[in-house]
Amino acid sequence: MHKIFFLLLFISPNYLFGQETKKVIDKSTREIFFVLKSDKTTKHGEYNKFNFRNALLVKGFYKQGAKDSIWECYSSKGELSLKYSLLQAHEAMQDHDMAEFEKYVNVESVAGNLIDDMAQQKGLLSMINPSSLAIKQALQFMKPQLAGVARKEVQK
């Protein structure tokens, strides 16, 4: 009895607050997506696009007609080739909302990769210091500072 109660408790909010949608299968464009029942031109929900061999090419989610959450693009071999959520990252940056921005951009990783790429540029480092070990170590200490600068830029 308790299991049924908890199941109803978790399912009922979807029925109370969810938008009613209708599944659309467009054979000419090889797309499967959902539209609002109240507005059949507004995509809302899961979206999938397939190639002529029915292999998945694009997978994502729409919310009220706008791309939402993470989108994935696949190669013709079915390998994940791109994963993005640029629109949300851009909107978060425009709104100066760092918490939202960090849902889509790993600032530490980007800053760290930038520093690592710089450290791999032997020509650049040897011009600064022929024994570039000290410079490489100094660059490693710069990672948190660079991430902090990037955060401040988004929050401005």
Explained architecture:
A 6-stranded antiparallel sheet has the order 1-2-3-4-5-6. It is elongated. The chain contains 6 helices and 6 strands. α2 packs antiparallel against α3 and α4 packs antiparallel against α6. It folds into 2 domains: 84 residues, no CATH class; 69 residues, no CATH class. It has 156 residues and is α+β, with helices and mostly antiparallel strands. It is 49% helix and 29% strand. The chain starts with a helix and ends with a helix.
What's this entry about, in short?
With about 160 residues, the chain is an alpha+beta fold. Helix content is about 50%, strand content about 30%.
Key phrases:
alpha+beta; 29% strand; 156 residues; 49% helix; six-stranded antiparallel β-sheet; elongated
- Shape by Cα distribution: elongated
What is the number of helical segments per DSSP (H or I, 4+ residues)?
A: 6
Q: What is the mean predicted local confidence, pLDDT?
A: 76
Helix content: 40-55%
* Number of discrete domains: 2
Please report the distance between the alpha carbons of the first and last residues: 53 Å
Low-confidence stretches: 4-17
Please give the radius of gyration in angstroms. 23 Å
Tell me the strand percentage band.
25-35%
Task: Characterize the main sheet.
Answer: 6 strands, antiparallel
Q: Please trace the helix and strand order, writing H or E for each element.
A: HEEEEEEHHHHH
